[in-house]
Structures are given as C-alpha cells and as structure tokens.
Specification:
Layout (H helix, E strand, L loop, with lengths): L1 E7 L3 E8 L4 E8 L2 H8 L6 E8 L6 H11 L6
Parallel strand pairs: 1-4
Antiparallel strand pairs: 1-2, 2-3
Helix pairs in contact: 1-2
C-alpha cells in the first residue's frame, strides 16, 4: 500500500509518496501545475490507499486539491 501527501502552497506543492513501512518513495517540490502533479503520481495510482492534502494559503481553492485527488483515484479531501 502507498499513501500520498500534498502540501499545497500558493505557487508550489510538495508531493510525497510513502509505503506502508514509512519508506519515502517520492518527495519533491513541484510547481502548481495540475498535469505535472498527476503525471508524477500516475505510476503509484494502482497502489494508492489514501491522499492527504494540506492547503496553507486561505485563498487557494480547495477545488484544486479535490481535483488532484479525484484524478488519481484517492479519497476526497474535505
């Protein structure tokens, strides 16, 4: 099983993927480009069990985080 965390900022996002033994499989700061984030997560898609999205800027739309989660097939952000 794999899990993803996305820390969304105003102009970048830190994307991390870990496995069920807490090993970091991927961790990188990316530009806020939806297609790039989805492409990075695509190889992990089948094994992803959950996604956590942290939004640190109040004016950043939560819909962006929700769309990332829906595109990669994870649970919805609330």
């Amino acid at each position: 099983m794999k899990y993803t965390g996305i820390d969304l900022h105003s102009n970048n996002a830190v994307v991390a993927v870990i496995d069920d033994q807490d090993r970091v499989l991927y961790c990188k700061r990316l530009a806020n480009d939806l297609s790039s984030i989805i492409a990075v997560l695509a190889p992990f898609r089948e094994d992803l069990q959950g996604v956590v999205c942290g939004v640190n800027v109040l004016w950043t739309p939560r819909d962006y985080a929700r769309f990332v989660v829906e595109e990669i097939g994870g649970a919805r952000c609330r």
